[in-house]
Amino acid sequence: MTTKRLQIKNVSVKFGGLSALQDVSFEIDDNQLLGFIGPNGAGKTTLMRVIMGMITPLSGSVFLDGKNITGLRSVQRIHAGVALGQQIVKPLRKMSLLDNVALASGGAKLLSPLRALMVRERSEEREVAQELLIQVGLGDHVQKLPNELPLGFLKRLEVARALALNPLLLLLDEPLAGLSKPEAEQMADLIASLPRKGLSVILIEHNLLQVQRVCPTLYVQSNGRALAFGDTNKVIAEPEVRRAYLGVDA
To answer: How far is it, in rounded angstroms, from Cα 71 to Cα 148?
Structure first.
């Protein structure tokens, strides 16, 4: 039996007496791009934070490559292979794009304060950063500062910084938000090119047009519950999904 890249098993979260997630379960394989959609208040952010270790579930478990990571802190999950690309991009504004990504690439060296003090050479990290910036379409801008670039480029920088952590699982939180239609399409194409052997991607997004275009598999959540999971076109056609997300009947 093939080990799943990510397994969410019967996860429930409550804030006070309010249920944010109720017995949520789904799983994805290696080399997979999963679209994750749902109306506002569906609990998407809560589940993302459970996966990242920012929230401890009331019940249920999170498995990465068959290993139970439910009890791991966020930093431990990052080093286990989970990375997050934030919706609101906050690069280090006084550092070049190259150094922003190189810093993420060398994150493991910062685990030990003594080792961090001893490290002076950054050529390996900068080489990785250069390759990643080329991959996301920023190869001509590596020495520029973030303030010199538009939002669409900063979104690409965020993807590169997340990839620099060499993750097994990459969560992308609304990377198309705030982009023009052409920019959103280009970003969606970039995201579609990311999954490979050793890397799976979850795209959390409100832009249904682009999600449906690039994601072969779709997970829909509503009111803290799993509503549908499977082939994207089949899921979109389900009456419950159309009512919950699109506000229309089949």
So the answer is: 41
Instruction: Give the predicted TM-score (pTM) of the model.
Output: 0.91
Among 140, 164, 188, residue at a domain's last position:
164
Residue 137 within any structural domain of the chain: yes
82: closest CA among 52, 44, 56?
52
Owning domain of residue 196: 1-81+167-250
**CA 128 – CA 168 distance, rounded (Å):** 17
Tens of pLDDT, residues 74-104: 999 999 999 999 988 999 999 999 999 999 9
How many residues does the structure list for the chain?
A: 250
β-bridge pairing 6-15 and 18-28 = antiparallel
pLDDT confidence band for 118 (50 / 70 / 90):
very low
Note whether 12 and 59 are same-domain residues: yes
The full 3-state SS of 8-69, as one line of letters, equals EEEEEEEECCEEEEEEEEEEECCCCEEEEECCCCCCHHHHHHHHHCCCCCCEEEEEECCEEC
Q: How many CA atoms lie within 13 A of 178 on its CB side?
A: 13
CA-to-CA distance for 185 and 206, rounded, in angstroms? 13
- Closest by CA position to 44, among listed 33, 55, 29, 32: 55
Q: What is the DSSP string of 61-112?
A: EEEETTEE-TT--HHHHHHHTEEEE-SS----TTS-HHHHHHHHHTGGGGSS
Buried b (16+ CB within 10 A) or exposed e, 110-136: eeeeeeeeeeeebeebbebbbebbebb
Mean pLDDT confidence for 193-222 = 96
